[in-house]
Design brief:
The complex is a heterodimer of chains A (253) and B (261). Chain A has 253 residues and is mainly α. Chain A is built from eleven helices and no strands. Chain B contains nine helices and ten strands. Classes of the chains: A mainly alpha (253), B alpha/beta (261).
């Protein structure tokens, strides 16, 4: 495998995922929007009509949490399965297996882009300003991608050896919904937990997105440092786990 | 001239119980201490192939042929020994790994070429030659679902033989398409070899194999029992499978070497 080919190969694999997923759907990319829209409407109904939430622009608030959360759970699950579900690529062609979880994460990023357009549409609908702080969005999303890639490198490698990993991942995702400020606000979290809460990279991503989109300000430095630290640690740990287990993939698939 | 492929004392141990996929079974095997039982899929195999030559690997089912190819391709790390392949390697081990029925012929061509290590520029320059070779002009905008299985194999083969390579590994796929297309594949492989590409073929004995490969390696229960000029190895192997030479049977290992613990 030559490095000059890696970019082209990654692009082709990502495109394949995307095309295959949408070619057989008559509604095409609108499926990407249907899930967050439905969840947004339901959560808005429950938390403005049933519980009286004081958060302004509640639908937009929900989307700022829901879209990062959905992106994380979906890309983590698909990336975890990516090596075990591609024995034809792992066992028959000389391919960097570290590429497969990366491709899974990146192809979900295309959905994310579509869903972020929905956020933008709501921002314009509520006549909120689009400020220069939006340049922070690519930075925080890049950190999140690195974190998810590192995490998935580890779980996808482990999943080849022990097929229970998938269920662990799915269970964590379910629990995580309650540990991310999607329908409640960070201000409601008790003071003594706030510092720890920010180390949850999905919560940190949601908080940073809220700072930019809803409150038009730069995400706090401590939050950014925590995101960077978590991304670096997971990337190194993921690369280490993958390097340790890589040589066993052929026998286990 | 330097060797394109060199294998020294390569051994691979398979442990059927060591690759359990569920936690429960894994713990069970750990507790009963049976997880280390296994056998040598390859046992102390050594050979070298100089640049631009062809090696035919023959042997019965389960003799270790595909395992050997996987080791050469770097897909499987041997338990003992080393394999050196200094050049660029391409594989024809399972035609169309990565093909998807919902993608068009063009899309599959690009994808497969990328998987086999071609760059964007190489694909652009060679795409027309590949389609010509596969004789699929006029079909490439249709999804692969509408292709016949012969057309799919032709496309995969055409892409693979247009990849730049110093070593080409071929597993049981010389029977692609009709007689005319087979002849064309054979000609293309000879051309590649004459340009300096080293061929390693796993296949059944055939006239085609003989003209592509000057060397032979006969694997039996993971051991290299013959290693030499193709004609000699093929003659011994033919005598073995026809049962003509009873003495030959006695000189061969009866079963793969077992390991425990």
């Amino acid at each position: 495998m030559r490095p000059s080919n890696l970019g082209f190969l990654t692009a082709e694999l990502v495109l394949k995922d995307f095309k295959v997923r949408y070619r057989n759907m008559s509604l095409g990319v609108f499926w990407s929007l249907l899930n967050p829209l439905t969840m947004m409407l339901v959560l808005t109904f429950v938390f403005t009509k049933v519980f009286q939430s004081q958060i302004p622009n509640y639908p937009l608030y929900v989307l700022c949490g829901l879209i990062p959360y959905n992106f994380f759970t979906l890309s983590w699950v698909t990336a975890t399965l990516s090596i075990a579900e591609n024995p034809a690529l792992v066992k028959r062609v000389p391919l960097q297996t570290a590429l497969l979880p990366l491709v899974a994460v990146l192809s979900n990023t295309l959905h994310l882009a579509i869903q972020l357009l929905l956020v933008l549409a709501l921002v314009l609908w509520y006549r909120l300003p689009v400020t220069w702080h939006y340049i922070w969005l690519p930075v925080i999303w890049a950190l999140e991608l690195l974190f998810i890639y590192g995490l998935s490198l580890a779980t996808s490698s482990l999943h080849v050896l022990v097929r229970d990993v998938r269920y662990v991942v799915e269970s964590i995702n379910l629990v995580l919904f309650w540990l991310v400020p999607i329908f409640y606000s960070f201000a409601m979290v008790p003071q003594q937990f706030k510092s720890l809460y920010e180390f949850n990279p999905v919560a940190a991503l949601v908080l940073a997105t809220q700072h930019v989109v809803l409150y038009h300000r730069t995400p706090p430095h401590t939050l950014m440092w925590k995101m960077t630290l978590v991304a670096a640690v997971f990337l190194l740990a993921g690369a280490w786990v993958h390097a340790r287990l890589r040589s066993r993939f052929y026998r286990y698939l | 001239m330097a060797d394109a492929v060199r294998a020294e004392n390569v051994s691979v141990i398979y442990r059927p119980r060591g690759s359990r996929k569920l936690l429960r079974q894994y713990l069970q095997d750990r507790l009963t201490g049976r997880h280390n039982e296994g056998f040598y899929a390859l046992h102390d195999v050594s050979f070298a192939v100089p640049r631009g030559e062809g090696l035919a690997v023959v042997g019965a089912n389960g003799a270790g042929k595909s395992t050997l190819l996987a080791v050469i391709a770097g897909l499987l790390e041997p338990d003992q020994g080393v394999v050196q392949v200094p050049g660029r390697l391409s594989t024809l081990m399972e035609l169309g790994s990565g093909f998807h029925p919902d993608l068009t012929g063009w899309e599959n061509l690009r994808l497969y070429a990328a998987i086999l290590g071609m760059t964007r520029r190489e694909v652009r320059d060679r795409a027309d030659a590949i389609v010509d070779f596969a004789e699929l002009q006029g079909y490439m905008d249709q999804t692969l679902r509408t292709f016949s299985s012969g057309m799919v194999l032709r496309l995969a083969f055409a892409v693979a033989v247009h990849a730049e390579c110093d070593v080409l590994l071929i597993d049981e796929i010389l029977a692609v398409g009709d007689a005319a297309f087979q002849k064309k594949c054979h000609r293309r492989l000879s051309e590649l070899r004459d340009k300096g590409c080293t061929l390693i073929c796993v296949s059944h004995i055939s006239g085609m194999l003989e003209s592509l490969c000057n060397r032979g390696l006969w694997l039996h229960h993971g051991r290299a029992v013959r290693n030499g000029p193709y004609r000699e190895v093929a003659a011994d192997y033919s005598a073995f499978i026809s049962g003509a030479d009873r003495h030959l049977w006695d000189t061969l290992p009866a079963a793969p070497v077992r390991v425990s613990g």
